Amino acid sequence: MVPELGHFALLIALCLAVGVAVVPMVGSYTGNTLLMQSGRSMAVGLFLFALFSFLCLVWAFTHDDFSVAYVASNSNSLLPIYYKLTATWGGHEGSLLLWILMSCCWLLAVSFFARSLPMVIHSRVLAIMGWTAVGILLFTIFTSNPFERILPGSPAEGSDLNPLLQDVGFIIHPPMLYIGFSGFSVAFAFAITALLSGHLDSAWARWSRPWTNIAWGFLTLGIGLGSWWAYYELGWGFWWGWDPTENNSLIPWLTATALVHSLAVTEKRGLFKTWTILLAIATFCLILLGTFITRSGVVNSVHAFANDPERGAFLLGYIVVVATFSLLLYALKAPSVASLSAFRLSARETFMLSNNILLTILMATVLLGTIYPMISEGFGWGTVSVGAPYFNFFWVLLVVPLCMLMGASSLSQWKQTSAGIYKKYLKLPVLISLVVAIIFPFIYGDSYRIGGAVTAFVVTWIVAATISGLLRQTRNAPSFWAGLRQLKLGYYSMSVAHLGVALLFLGAGLTSIYDNERNLILQPGASQELFGYHWRFGGVQEVRGPNYLAEEGQVWVSRGDRVLAELAPQKRYYLSGAMVTTEAAIQGNLWRDLYVSLGEATEPRSAGGWVITVYVKPFIAFIWMGIILMSAGGLMALFDKRYRYAQARKDASDQAGSASALGQATS
Amino acid sequence: MHPVRKQRLIFVLFLVFFASAAAALLGFALRDNIDLFYPPSKIVAGGAPIDKQIRAGGCVLPGSIERVENSMTKHFIVTDGAANLSVTTDVILPDLFKEGESAVLTGKLNGDGVFVATQVLAKHDETYMPPEVADNLQNPEEHVKTCKGLNYGS
């Protein structure tokens, strides 16, 4: 009964989404205030029904209702309760339901927190967001109904959640990612509204900017969590593999990053207007394209969803409709919002322009590398795959200048900046970075690595130039610390995010350059010196988990007389099916991770010998810290004054509603 | 020059410079990093280049996995139903690698017609199979889409 209620709620949600999409829009063109205001109450209803539908699916999971096809294929009665809860989004259908719920959260948030917008604009933004919700609801209801029953003959036992997803990283990664993805429907809605209304002023940019920054912060966090999960759960020791599924989240992230910067120019200087709109449209379309690539089975990915051509056809149709509509509107209306203003080559606008061009090229290279196998197949050039060296080549080539410009940009000013400022404030950072770059490879690592020097230079440069920028900003304050307190929120979030990039660059660069990885064959009791550590193997024994049996190895890592880590990597055999997973054992500190995973038993088996992969991953913790700082920079927009203003005007009943919305978004 | 025009000129120059550099590099980088996929029957028939990185794949022939004692070296055979390709590798086989299931390999073909794999990928469930393997399965029976239905000829 409950799954039927969930399905029914989903259908009502679709009706309400159509209502949100149509009624306020009609109101905005006929000038009917009542129709325009109805959007908000419908948004509340839409959210409540989507939430109810989602909770029904959660109920089906916690009550082991295996007559529901989706539950039967993604859960098992042996599954611990917390994984039963998170199995709700462990497959295609349920993750779409989560996406719907997140979209409805954003819709609700916009309906409450953007009320100081002119009513016509507000109702149009809501309507466009309603349309995006209609799209994803239609897709779910017609091609991926999570409530479908297997009746009669429903299975007595479920076939289990994919063991790789039975993990803490997976509990939080998809919600963060989907908050990010669906958040860009806000930027998209603002962009379409600007085109429909035919004018785009700095107020428009001021309004859409915090939403975009927050969505960007969540997307960054979501991608980072996915990377972290892959690093320790897959047991391969790498944090990014240029897999199509990973790339599909990175591609919209790149245009979104460009959008965050371009919006800043549009707000402060009224420039790049049409470009900003194009980026917002592109980000939204690329998110849809990524969904299509991941969920239609057109590429061979390590972690693609189950494939169904019907879904692919629907999504492709949806992308065509969205892209045609928005680009046609863009072609017709963009000239009317175009900006006319000048700036000097030395001004901040130039940095933003370079940032946007570099990010767009980067996006194009990743996109091409990801879809090239499809292009090649389609044109009959053979079945190919694009290797990681292709992607790595472009990243090194483009990210280094991007980061160099990013450092210098912290000293730039809008409109024009005198060369004297750069000279005065960048002389020291240049010197420091050069010195660090030359010295670092000598004191770190066994041999002089030019990549190490480049990494050290870029990272020191970003940090030093950012600090120099802070010094310049606070030069008129009585002290540096007093000046820091007076800085605007925007400057803070920029500095924090840029320092995050520096840490990410440090971690990513040094981990790839000084990476140590070796397969060892070890008999029980044997040991080996490697990478400056002493690795001793204690053998493998059987252990039992709640829903799996495992072979657990014992590895002691020591340096000198001191035992640094006792690691217990596992090979798990899940009871519900034939699945086997490798659980790496990691002992990490700030400077390095000791990472051990069990490979395979060697012949003869009776000897008990195993192939064990050992890794020493230097500086990898900096990657995670960098990602946290970057998303923190984006999420600082939550504390933006513009929201506080809106909040102050709210009455008590609204507060209750939005509190529950926020509670949902963070749970 | 008028500031607006000057600004446009700078913009256009930026765009032309970066776009052309990007296009040239794209072609260059793609050419070197594309791994073509060959089915076993094509490799055995001599249709694949020797000592160049390629990809291959098929179903792992049941009973063909041999592990060399106290070493990481393994030999096995992949088949597309029409021809058998011998594979040797030193890498750790993935958890999902199994006899009678599909595998995708990256590596080089040596002069003896043995495929030396530097990467082995496996993914299977009841319904999923790597598209390139599925598309190249050759079997007298129609519509064989997974390794389960393959006639191994033994």
Description:
The complex is a heterodimer of chains A (about 675) and B (about 150). Chain A contains 20 helices and eleven strands. Chain A has about 675 residues and is an alpha+beta fold. In chain A, a hairpin with a 3-residue loop joins strand 9 and strand 10. In chain A, helix 1 runs antiparallel to helix 2, helix 8 runs antiparallel to helix 9 and helix 15 packs antiparallel against helix 17. The longest helix of chain A has about 30 residues. In chain B, a hairpin with a 5-residue loop joins strand 6 and strand 7. In chain B, strands 2-4-5-7-6 form a five-stranded mixed β-barrel. Chain B is α+β, with helices and mostly antiparallel strands and about 150 residues long. The interface between A and B is large, with 51 and 46 residues.
Structure described in brief:
The complex is a heterodimer of chains A (667) and B (154). Chain A is α+β, with helices and mostly antiparallel strands and 667 residues long. Chain A contains 20 helices and 11 strands.
